[in-house]
């Protein structure tokens, strides 16, 4: 076996390791190496093409749910078992597929094509949650697909089949929700090697389909010090750091008095809401943003600006204060930040009054 890969000593070492799991890796490596040709790899950007790309400003990443989810991104939500990850993910799937604000707040510019993959346990759990949610929402049956059948796939051996299934079940998919991700791998995602293989194959899925990904994941078990106190970790997601490096954004979700609190732990593009406090209604099984004032000041201001941009309305400093419920000093500080300042055009009406508009 190692002689076949003499040019690739690192791969030769990996695939020669005597482990049942390595059967998968051997197959994946062999197939990938034997199927690729020069025609599969586009030319590197250079000369005029490189210059043209640099000189032409890139478009902003398009929002799927402004402040929460964007095109061609990878979002991970990690929480303890039983915390409600599946409940909020399925609700978000319905809202995104319907074009409704996610959690009653995050604006969705257009309905999305959403594929919800139940990768553990039975589809019955998804159906039961949907039965509760459609008492509040109309089922977006044209844009939402749910399945537990992909549990039959070995995602490395059956990569081509996985892509075919996705294209069959949800053509032109915008968002794939995997719930949960640890069960996609034999042996889980604790070690670097399976985690690296998972991230590699999911990057290929995203590149092939041009979609965004939402991963539901677990956190590590709570640990305690010698005196019995709970050890609080800043980001207690379960598994290898490969997972954290792979995603573009992540939230740690914990139970709160009213429902759940999602705290942002990674934000590659500085576009995610820092904390999301959701109140759960046990009668409707719906979670909604509990209180706008619980958002971070920068997120409250961004929400105000998004609303004005959508309506194409000008506004004053006084309106910002009134609608965001932020103090004068905080508003002034935020308006001077590079991020916010670049979004606004300002017209001086007189010495004491300015009119603000969102730039096109």
What about the largest sheet? 9 strands, mixed
Number of strands: 16
SSE series: HHHEEEHEHEHEHEEEHEEEEHEHHHEE
The helix/strand class is alpha/beta
Low-confidence stretches: none
Shape: globular
CATH architecture of the largest domain: 3-Layer(aba) Sandwich
The domain tally reads 3
CATH superfamily (homologous) name of the largest domain:
P-loop containing nucleotide triphosphate hydrolases
Beta-strand residue fraction: 15-25%
Rg, Å, rounded: 23 Å
The CATH topology assignment of the largest domain is: Rossmann fold
Provide an overview of this structure.
There is one protein chain. The chain is of the alpha/beta class and 360 residues long. The chain has three domains: 1-58, no CATH class; 63-292, P-loop containing nucleotide triphosphate hydrolases (Rossmann fold); 299-358, Arc Repressor Mutant, subunit A, CATH 1.10.10.10. Helix content is 35%, strand content 22%. It contains twelve helices and 16 strands. The chain has helices at residues 9-15, 22-35, 47-55, 85-98, 123-133, 159-169, 192-209, 241-246, 297-311, 317-324, 328-335, 338-341, and strands at 63-65, 69-70, 74-79, 114-118, 144-147, 175-179, 212-218, 223-224, 230-231, 249-255, 259-267, 275-281, 286-289, 315-316, 344-350, 353-358. Strands 5-4-6-7-3-10-11-12-13 form a nine-stranded mixed beta sheet, with helices on one face. The protein has a three-stranded antiparallel beta sheet with strand order 14-16-15. It is globular, with a radius of gyration of 23 Å.
